[in-house]
Design brief:
InterPro entries: RNA_pol_sigma-70-like, RNA_pol_sigma-70_dom, RNA_pol_sigma70_r2, RNA_pol_sigma_r2, RNA_pol_sigma_r3/r4-like. By secondary structure, the protein is an all-alpha fold. It has ten helices and no strands. It is elongated and about 65 Å long.
Length: 218
């Protein structure tokens, strides 16, 4: 398999089952994104965690098959795996509910909604009904957003460990909290120029850490 972009270095490392640090980095970012998608489908915490573990296990078996030339972007490919695992568990729950008195018509309507067919909405199968399941297109978009967010948070945390608290606060307060450089400089007791330098250097470190997760065309 040819990997056409140097930014998929992490995927190359994942092919080596002995590279535990690669899997640690991957799980730190994508496990939370998978969990979030499962929750958006209406799964409870325990079920969403089960889906996350199932997806990661499936990925460990299939990662060697991924080819960006055939499968497209990795996040979209992973989103499909997450979607299928979530739907499988939802259907398993539906079957359990059917055995406990849910009508076949409601069960079928729910399955159609989960699969993203038409505008069907899942009926009320229990007193504690969750949000309507996402169709694949919507899930792919949301999963991409969640993954990018987790990438940033992971990289930011890694960066924070290697810089001073003042440098971190200068970055966080101006970039995330959107305070002015003058205001932050006054709060931290440093010059405005030092705030600019801290922000730029910290952002550069974060971008460097995120780079291996970027995909072709981004």
């Amino acid at each position: 398999m040819v990997l056409p972009d140097t930014r998929v270095t992490l995927l190359q490392r994942l092919h080596d089952g002995r590279d535990s640090s690669a899997w640690t980095e991957f799980c730190a970012i994508y496990e939370r994104a998978i969990y979030s998608i499962a929750r958006r489908h209406g799964l409870q915490d325990a079920d969403a965690r089960e889906v996350s573990q199932e997806v990661l296990l499936t990925l460990s078996r299939r990662i060697h098959r991924f080819d960006p030339q055939l499968d497209g972007r990795f996040r979209a490919w992973l989103s499909v795996i997450a979607h299928n695992a979530t739907i499988d568990l939802l259907r398993k729950n539906r079957k359990h509910q059917a055995k406990n008195g849910v009508s076949p018509s409601k069960l079928e309507a729910s399955n159609r909604a989960e699969a993203g067919e038409g505008d069907a909405q899942p009926p009320d199968l229990s007193p504690r009904q969750g949000p309507a399941p996402l169709n694949r297109n919507e899930q792919s978009r949301i999963f991409d957003q969640e993954a990018r967010r987790e990438q940033f948070l992971w990289a930011a945390e890694q960066t924070r460990r290697g810089i001073s608290e003042t440098t971190w606060l200068a970055f966080w307060q101006t970039t995330i909290e959107e305070q002015s450089c003058e205001q932050v400089a006054s709060q931290l007791g440093i010059t405005v120029g030092a705030v600019y330098v801290a922000r730029c250097r910290t952002l550069a470190k974060i971008k460097q850490l995120v780079e291996p997760f970027r995909e072709s065309g981004e």
